[in-house]
Amino acid sequence: MLATPSGHAGDRIAGRWGWFITLGIVMVLAGGFALGDTVLVTLLSVIFIGAMLVVGGVIQLIHAFANRSWAGFILSLLCGALYVVGGFLIMQEPVQGSVLITIVLMASLAVGGVLRIVMALRHREVGGWWLLLLGGLISIVLAALLFVSLPWSSFVLLGTLIAIELIFHGVAWIRLGLTLRAGG
Fold it and tell me: What's the whole-model pTM score?
């Protein structure tokens, strides 16, 4: 952090505590709205992800053509095209896109859970190893719950995660604003 002339980095923002609280309130309200219609938020987030894939793919295609002499030209060109096509497909079919994203998340949870369990069992001599084991088991249970509830879980998963993130992040901003207001 950079120090201000008064000597403390937080001095500059302490007088703006109201902005932090306002931001927090807006985020909590947005999270509440998102919880009210998780399906809509899921579909909108899938469309956004698709649009970002298209943008990234177009940029990669431009980069590939700008560097045609590069040995990775063909691979870069193919990846860019894949991003663009995949992005458009996800935007055209956001319901199937949400199922695909949920399957990727489910697989990530399962693989990560298994890896954490193996790591925990290999390092039982380390204090707290059982927390790593517990975290791995929870990840596997979550993956199994997503699997048995497919495709329905995919319609609410992203929206619910986004809503929870907005609410918790909003509460954190409110808490920071109140701390700044109190002087530290």
Answer: 0.74
